[in-house]
Structures are given as structure tokens and as C-alpha cells.
Amino acid sequence: MFNDKIIAEIEKWKPSSSFSYGTAGFRARANLLPPVVFRCGILAAARALSVPCVCVGLMITASHNPPEDNGVKLIEPNGSMLNENWEIIASRLINSHNPKEVLEELCIQENISLVLDNKSSPRPAVYIGHDTRSSSEPLARIVESAVELIGLKCKCFGTVTTPQLHYFVKVANEEGLQANKENYFQRLSIGWDTLSQYAFGSSTLQEDKIVRIVDCANGVGAEAMANLIAYTNMQNVYCVNTGNGELNQFCGADFIQKNAVFPNVSSDGFDLNSISSDASVHFCSLDGDADRLVYFIPVEQGITCWKSLSGQRVRVLEGDRMSVLAALVIKKLLDVLQVKISIGVIQTAYANGASTAFLKNLGKPVQVECVPTGVKHLEKAAKKYDIGIYWEANGHGTILFAENTVSLLRETIEQNSAEQTKKAALCLLALSSIANQATGDGICNFILAEALLKFMGWQHLASWESLYDDLPNCYKALNVRHKELIKTTDQERTLLSPESVSKVIKRFSDSKPSYRFLVRPSGTEDVVRLYGEGPSVDELNDMMKELEIAVLQACGSSDHK
Predict the structure, then answer these.
(1) Can you give the pTM of this predicted structure?
(2) What region holds the Phosphoacetylglucosamine mutase AMG1 domain (predicted)?
(3) Which of 57, 141, 251, 430 is most enclosed, with most CB atoms within 10 A?
(4) Which residues form the catalytic set?
(5) 305: pLDDT strictly greater than 90
(6) Domain ranges in the chain?
(7) Would you list the DSSP string of 264-288?
(8) Which CATH number fits domain 4-179: 3.60.20.30, 3.40.120.10, 3.30.1490.100, 3.10.129.10?
């Protein structure tokens, strides 16, 4: 199954800390990661050998985390996140003081051999990508050495966004296409061109008056955005924070979404003063590896320089609003198409209640489904529908089109002579080309959002924002000693224990039924997360304070051990 040389090499790479594989893979300070990424390279090779495939993926990134951090995540042959069973194997292998035992069990369980003979052909490969952190390229080279130890080939794409690598793996396995950046951007360009031809022709928008400014978080998204602009010939797109500043430092999607303030902007040769006073400005932010995107509107209007904007309050158009916009446009197109296609909009209990109400009021065929927190739950539920829409509040999400849906759209285009019906099918097909079918993708979602806004004829972001008013809400993360005491049910919407906390929530719901409160334990930290929403900010804050006290009393504050 494997030889002593493999075991000897793995035993050299012993992690100095304990790690647990989560949704984002393994993350830590970069100096702690060499042993982790080496063993992950071994695991990636094993995963590639365990199923018939062209390749699996391995990405070196820590997304929106500080530049001194880094991480590693594995990508399944279908482009999705690592299988849950393999997450457990990953944690065992990385932490094991006896890797030989773990590998023996793995080889027996998966019926694989990590020593390949000359008859083992064709051999799968491991696709590797990394972000722009200084530690990323050296860590990627460590992965290559591990994969080559098993006898598999690596294909290193260098600096790429995380969603690009997911896409490369998916199309290589499922479509047999040459996986590269050119193919990725060509699809986006074709989708944008199709919509420009069939969906935007009657638009009254003054395109030259729309200015799009993208905060690239000083990360890998800067290069991707430059390529996107070149391939699509999209006008009036300007990128800031393209690498002159520090990665994710007071900028990027995560910073905007959590703090609701305008990002700091490093000098990138773009002058805000050059924008016409009558222009409509679309501000948005990517995160460090470009898998998230949020839009935002400065609260104070008429400010004309970056320095005065930095730190100013903004209104954030986050993931809930992306789901609503996508569902609204797709329903309009399906109303023209008149075919039986199911649309599922997948949310967690933490989606703002106003967005849920808006989606339910859209009516059939739109269905709203609530799932537990986590991308893997959202993605799994979305795949049950002909068209599945999902976004997290942080700006990570996409629209998934089932294969039978794409086939139906193509048949409609070929067989239907009615011009409006054919146009609607072409537009939906274009959206399926733009939306990343493997994972949430900030670059794709930028084109997607601009296309949807243009389809609706909305020049200003305020038109999008005005679809509904968010209910006032409050979020807190409490450091506790015993998060395991928190038990929930009904997709985390109902608290089972501790009883003292559930009694507080029940009292709130009985006396103030227009408010709702959620309590859940973090999956990776010693933290309990609280969320509340309701019509009055003052009342909500008072109730949240009482709930916070109840949780700390029940679970023990880690600040008072």
C-alpha cells in the first residue's frame, strides 16, 4: 500500500499544534503550516486515487484573515469542498503521531495503494493554487514535494483566486476541458455579451454615467479583476487596493460586512475626484482570495476624496440582497419562459427576516428553504432544485443550474420560434455561464450583480436597496468555557438547552412576538454566537444584553475562569 520511504518522510513533518479541518480547511499562523501542508499533499494524492478522476485540488490561502496567517483546503473532483468523511481523515492524519496507522486504515478503507506501478495509468493529478501572501508560494512547493512522493503529477496554477481553482478542477473532471484562466474568463465574457445582446437592448440606463469601483483587498482579486475587464471590455470599472497596501487591512469584503464602514484605500493611481458629480457610483469589495463580494453605499453623500471617505459609515448590500436580486430576475425570466422549473433560495436562520419575507412574497416557483449555518449545507440544499440560489450574509454564494435545466434551456432556444421566449432562455443560459457552478465566486458575482442590476434598469444601488428595509439586528460572539452546553434544533432556530437561556428566549417571544433570537455554538472556536432582530433598535439592544448575561451565566465566561 505504501513504502517505508513515504512513512519516513511524513514522520519528518510533525505539526507542533493540534488542527481541525473545517469549512475553510486548516488555518493558522503561516510558520506553523509546513508540516500541515505536506501531510495535506499526501492526503490530496490519496483522495485523487480513491475515485476515478482527472484531478483533485489543493488551495493555499487564508482568505480574509491577516497576511501573517495562511491555510490549506482540498477540493473534490466535482469542484466542491472536501467530503465530510475525508475532513475527519484529514484531521486524524495531520494530528497523528502514528501516520502509518492512519494511512494503513485509509488504504484498506478506500482500496487504494500509495505506491503506483507502471500499470497505474492514466494517473490523476493534484491541481495547486495559492493566493498572494508571501508564505503561499513556499507552502505550495512543499505540497508539490508531497504529491510527487506518491508518484502523482502536480499542475500548479500559481497565483489564482480560490474559486478559480474550484472551477479548474470541476471542468477538468466533468467537461474534459482545458482548465486555465483563459477558459474561465471567456465563459464570463460570453455570458456578459449574450446578456448585452438580448437583455439590455431596451435599457434606459446611461451606461457612461455608471462608475464601478472595486476594492480588491490588496489580494489576488486585483489580477483577476484586471483580466475580467480586459476580456469583457466592461467600461468604467476601476480597481483600488490592488496590492500597494496590506492584505485585508481595513479593507475587503469581510471588513466591510462586519464594520459597515468605508475601507481604507491605498494609492492605486485612481483619483476619486475624477468621477463626474452626476455619476452613479457602484462601490463593492472582494475579500483576500476573491470568493466573497459585498456592495455598499456611503451614508454621507457628496464626499469627493478618498481620505474623507475612509472610515465613514456605509450601508452594506450583502448576501441576502444578492439572493433576492437573483431570485427576482430569474422569476421574471421564467414568467416569460412558461416552463416548469423549480427555484430554491437557500438561507440560514441568520438571514434577515425582511429578506425572507420578500422572497416568500415572490410566490411560485420561488421556494425558500432554511438550513444550518455553513456553506456545505447551503450548497447541498441548492442542488436539490432546478435552479438553486444561495448566499451567506458575508457575500459568499452563487446560483447553481442543474444539468437538466441547462439542457431544457438549450432545447427551448433550438425549438421555439417565439422571440421573447427564446430571449428569456438565452438570458438564463447566460446567467448559468456567469455564475460559478462550483462555489461562491466574487469575480463572477461582480459581473452577475452588474448584469442583474442592468436587467432591472437600475442605475443606482439605492434602487436595489429599496426592495425592502432590513429589520434592525444585532450580532454578538461570546467567549465561553462550555459552548457544548448549547443545543439547538429546527435548523438552529430553536434552542433546546440550557433551560435557563431558552426560558429567556421564550419570555421574549411570548411578550414581543415581532422579535426573534438565535443562539448557537461556534464550530471551531470556544464561542457562542447570538443574533437578534426586531422593529426597535433600543428594545433589541436591551433584550440582547439580558440574553448575553443568561448565556454567560449558563456557559461560563472565559474571561472569568
Answers:
(1) 0.93
(2) 318-458
(3) 57
(4) 63
(5) no
(6) 4-179, 185-317, 320-444, 473-560
(7) P----S--GGGS-TT-EEEEEEE-T
(8) 3.40.120.10
